[in-house]
Write a structure and sequence with these properties.
Blueprint (H helix, E strand, L loop, with lengths): L9 H13 L15 H17 L1 E2 L2 E2 L2 H13 L3 E3 L5 E3 L9 H17 L8
Antiparallel strand pairs: 1-2, 3-4
C-alpha cells in the first residue's frame, strides 16, 4: 500500500520531506487540497431538502439529489452529452471530490439559488 499523509503540522511536513528524500526515481507524489468536511455535507442537505420541497423547476419536482446535481453542474460548468438511450447526462458533478472551497461555493450557490426562487430556508 502506498503511504498517505494528511498534513496537519510541521512534523507532518518533515515526514513528507523524509519520505521524498528516500523515494526511488519514478515515484509519483500527488498533492490534493482538503476535501469537503462532514460539517459542510451536513449543512448542504437541509438546504437541498428545502429547495426540493418548495421549487418547481420547469414544471418538475426535483429530489434533493437532483437539486444537488443541478447546482453542482452549474458550479462546475459541467458538460452535457446525449445519453445512450434517450435524454441527456451531466458530466463531472460529483460532490464527493470537491475541495472545502468548492463545497463552500456550492452551499453559497444553493442559498442564492433558493432565495432567487423564493425558497424559505428552515434554519437548523
Amino acid at each position: 500500500m502506498d503511504p498517505v499523509i494528511t498534513i496537519r503540522s510541521d512534523a507532518d511536513r518533515e515526514r513528507v520531506a523524509r519520505w521524498s528524500s528516500k523515494a526511488p526515481a519514478g515515484t509519483r507524489v500527488v498533492f490534493k487540497k482538503p476535501r469537503r468536511t462532514v460539517e459542510q455535507n451536513s449543512l448542504l442537505w437541509p438546504i437541498l431538502n428545502d429547495i426540493s420541497r418548495q421549487l418547481d423547476w420547469y414544471g418538475e419536482k426535483l429530489s434533493p439529489d437532483e437539486v444537488k446535481d443541478l447546482l453542482s453542474a452549474a458550479l462546475r460548468k459541467s458538460r452535457v452529452v446525449p445519453a445512450i438511450d434517450s435524454g441527456f447526462v451531466i458530466l463531472g458533478q460529483h460532490t464527493s471530490s470537491m475541495t472545502k472551497k468548492e463545497f463552500s461555493e456550492l452551499i453559497e450557490l444553493a442559498y442564492a439559488f433558493g432565495a432567487q426562487h423564493g425558497v424559505k430556508f428552515n434554519e437548523q
